[in-house]
Design brief:
It is an enzyme of class 2 (transferase). The protein is of the alpha/beta class. The chain is built from six helices and seven strands; from the N terminus they run E-E-E-E-H-H-H-H-E-H-E-E-H.
Length: 248
Amino acid sequence: MSGLLGADHGPSSGQVAKSEAPSCSLLPSPRHQCLLLVDSVASLGGAPVYMDQQGIDILYSGSQKVLNAPPGTSLISFSNKAKNKIYARKTKPVSFYLDIQWLANFWGCDDKPRTYHHTTPVTSLYSLRESLAHLAEQGLENSWRQHREASEYLHACLQGLGLQLFVKDPALRLPTITSVVVPTGYDWRDIVKYIMDHHDIEIAGGLGPSAGKVLRIGLLGGNATRESVDRVTRALREALQRCPRSKL
């Protein structure tokens, strides 16, 4: 028996997310040969992830979150177990764009002559390389600490405004994205629009089941600072004073 188990570490929705990345302990017995795939789109670089030690087989992320690179490129890594399974595949992939064997050849991951697959987004890759170089200069542990301290400061400021954090347990809060319960009587769209119009700060509403119920605030990369937290706190305080509030 084989299969693929997907798990979130840093989902952009900013809902409940463990501070530690999912590990192979989630998997059934090793004899099932199940692969563990982890989404770290909004956490890579901002929260600890140990792919090898945690037994993650496929880890992917995005360039535009913590790395602060332009959107459009994605990072993905495969364990040896995942690579062996891909190369042992008997059926042709359904998707040309996600034919990993072909992409691996195009990326120079095997010893075979390279075969053209797509036009490489050269400018985006140079931007991503510069972002990774900046992260390497800062150091992963320093980046993790920066995001943790900034998020803890944000949580304290939000609670000081009388706002309620959507994720109750501090141990389950992702340090890069914070979800705040929309106060009773407010329309989240009014708050988001006011903050953008008057402070040039973009925050977002909830996604999926939390749509209309929460506000999402990102502290990603260069924005994970006390100065950014102070700015968004002032903007939120003013928005709550100026936006219409229903008494029903």
